[in-house]
Amino acid sequence: MSAINCNDLCKYYQQGDAVIKGLDHVSLEIEEGSFICLSGPSGSGKTTLLNAIGGLDSLDSGEISINGERVDLLGKAALSDLRLHSIGFVFQAYNLIPVLSARENVEFVMQVQGVSAAERKVRSSKILQEVGLEGMEDRRPAQLSGGQQQRVAVARAIVSQPKLVLADEPTANLDSKSMERLMTIFRELNRTHKVTFLIATHDQRVMEWAERRISMEDGRVIADELQNVA
Amino acid sequence: MAMPVRAMSVLAWRNLWRNYRRTLIMLLAITVGVWAMIFMTALLRGMVDNMVRTGISVLPGHVQIHAMEYRDDPSVTHSLPAASKAILEVLNGEQVTAWAGRVKVPAMISSEQDNRGITLLGIDPGGEMALGFDSADVIEGRFLDGPDDRGIVIGKKLMQRLETRLGKRVVVMSQDPENAIADRGFRVVGVYEADLESREESFVYAGRDVIQGMLGMGSDVSELAILGHDYRTPDSLTLSIRDAVPADQEVLSWLELDPYLSTMMRVMDGFVLVWMVVIFLALSFGLVNTLMMAIFERVREIGLMRALGMRPSAIVYQILVESLMLLALGLLAGNVLAISTILWLKDGIDVSAISEGMEMMGAASVMYPVMEWPDLVLANAVVIGLGIITSLLPAWRAAQYRPVEALSST
């Protein structure tokens, strides 16, 4: 069954007299439980595609469905609910809330979802331990390194076990060991809970973890290939 | 889906203190504004209350009964017979705290130096004091001993005008029911001081029996003055008395007897509301500016919250909670400050430097702040109510950010 279905997506930006092609007639079908990486140079349209799929940005034309629901037709509130319950985001910049501690940042989505305090604490402790931030739960973002902040952002994205994780350069600030640990967590979630992962990355190491690699350039898909993963 | 109130409150509280200097300045502004609303209203209330009480003590009473023509021609010919049984039943009932029959006629008073037109009051001293005359106002000599006291008590200002003094004799002239001159000599046994000099100059007190004898009016009186429990609500008392009196007598509450005072009291409520709204409007510019600045500094975070699944309405609530916390803190400090100031000044503020102006308005030269709970509630309601309305604009702006644009802002 298709988790994501993109049909002829177009998104153009006007920059002076020039038209920048964010997405240029992109069509994709992503199966539920896939582990896919989006690769391509900066400006190739990876982030634009993730934003469009997550309902963060509107399209000029085209259709996007997630689990059969047309994302491009949803209103603001319905899109918020979709993101809250079905999608986990990892952004390029860590995007943590500075006045909240690491634990509170991780619990934020669960709070909005209405998860009980006891349940939140159990889940956040577990995920923070898994991403190697045990003992740093009460630190504010300003007291964490870039890599640690990125791990908090990852923990926040996956703690409520969404059906789809959209990750934009999730390993950009991580050393090899942390990257390995993070990808292992992603893979584990993908295999055990059939969470679909769509990861935009420049990182060759991350690409090696993906079953399917979609390459983009100038807003177009230029290659879409399956890979053998150990 | 909205966040739980507790989580929203924690986030709002921490956001509030991100820029503590800005928050403190805004808090100071709200505190001073709330203080001004409550304290100045208490001063105005005190002034109007004083004017009304002074007015009522001059009338005196909350309700008066007169002969129908008395107010057009307050002479001895328009007097009232002794109170009937029906009237006495009401006057001795629970609604009445005190009452007295008084002779009140225009007269002329002469000393060996000068003469003046006055209002001659023939009173029963006990009843008069129950109606509000304070014997402590008598600064020289004594007040009348009873309705048959043959002395006279005049105001300090009148004494100066007549160039007379305690113990000297004066002559009082008026008209009897046959329009003949009725006069009598009195010894000045007391001099009183009043809040209003005009009262000192015009009101002269003598024993009721003596004046009735001088004017040949038997046991008739000019008016029955009646005091109820609360000057603000004289209507039910007026209606009860009106039911008991004959058709040739009129029963009027002080609201009708002194339209200037009653209008002022009615206007006061509207003025208080306008005053509070005006102060809040000045405050609201600061509040909107503070919230707008706080939002502009957090565009990226707001975009993040939207991206993570917070609905636009939840963003509105989040900003409103922040605004409410700021308002609540300001209200708390403002209320405490205002109540403390009112308690501190409960013995009055001496404004004798502008006593002439105050007297023109019928107010005394000492102002007593009077805090009324409805005013306190109104001030708090205005700040909270209008504060929420004012905060809706920045909150709505925040909710309109598109996540992708907000996230890419620096």
Brief summary of the model shown:
Helices cover 35% and strands 30% of the residues of chain A. Chain A has 7 helices and 10 strands.
Tally of extended strands of chain A? 10
**Annotated CATH architecture of chain A:** 3-Layer(aba) Sandwich
Order of helices and strands of chain A: EEEHEEHEHHHEHEHEE
Mean pLDDT of chain B: 88
Radius of gyration of chain A from CA coordinates: 17 Å
Low-confidence stretches of chain B: none
CATH topology of chain A: Rossmann fold
Mean pLDDT of chain A: 90
Strand order of the largest sheet of chain B: 2-3-8-5-7-6
Q: Per the principal axes of the C-alpha atoms, what is the gross shape of chain B? A: elongated
Distance, first to last CA of chain B? 27 Å
Number of helices of chain A: 7
Q: What does this entry look like structurally?
A:
The complex is a heterodimer of chains A (230) and B (410). With 230 residues, chain A is an alpha/beta fold. Chain A has a single domain, classed as 3-Layer(aba) Sandwich (Rossmann fold). Chain A has seven helices and ten strands. Chain A has helices spanning 46-53, 76-86, 102-113, 117-130, 146-158, 176-193, 204-207, and strands at residues 2-15, 18-31, 35-39, 61-66, 69-70, 87-90, 164-168, 196-200, 212-217, 220-226. Chain A has a six-stranded mixed beta sheet. In chain A, strand 1 and strand 2 form a beta hairpin. The two termini of chain A are 24 Å apart. Chain B is 54% helix and 18% strand. Chain B is elongated, with a radius of gyration of 31 Å. The model of chain B has no long low-confidence stretch (mean pLDDT 88). The relative contact order of chain B is 0.18. Chain B is of the alpha+beta class. Chain B folds into two domains: 5-55 and 262-407, no CATH class; 60-257, no CATH class. In chain B, strands 2-3-8-5-7-6 form a six-stranded mixed β-barrel. Chain B has a two-stranded antiparallel ribbon with strand order 11-12. At the A-B interface, helix 2 and helix 3 of A face helix 1, helix 11, helix 12 and helix 15 of B.
